[in-house]
Amino acid sequence: MAKLLTDPAALRVAELPKGTTLNFDIVPDAQMRGQMAEELGVLGLRKVAFRGTLAPSGRRDWQLSAQLGATASQECVVTLEPVTTRIDNAVQRRFLADMPRAAELEPTPEDGVEMPEDDTKEPLGEVIDLARILIEALALALPDYPRKDGSGPAGAIAAPPGQAPLDDDAIKPFAGLAALRDQMKDDE
To answer: pTM, whole model, 2 decimals?
Structure first.
């Protein structure tokens, strides 16, 4: 038996129907897309859809399987012009009741930080927030350094007021020595 959810509100785990798979279809309206774009630091979001299922797994765990689709507009890191990216990603999460919480896993400086082998596992809390999962999955899918097609490498030239900016030749001191050597050969 399946139930369809369209409200992106957080789901209280204690109120989830046992033995029932929940289908969800979240398509944020323009206002919510604007809030998401602001939170993610992008110019805009269009065609955002988060569809999938939340199913019981064992006695107390839950499995989320979803498809995320979105069109994002970001600034090119070189030209600052808008760059459009289409995202179509599968999203998997396993909410485990017996997984230690982050507060229980406080690493000491000697322990270091290690990435888990299975990054789909999360501790099961009191709520499963589908909207938060949508935003997190979108943040992970966005390009870190979007570039407009045909934009070359980013370059910056700076100098204090009244000074000539350094160019590539000035930064390469041996290029000046080669020119001096060539000049000495000419003088001989």
So the answer is: 0.68
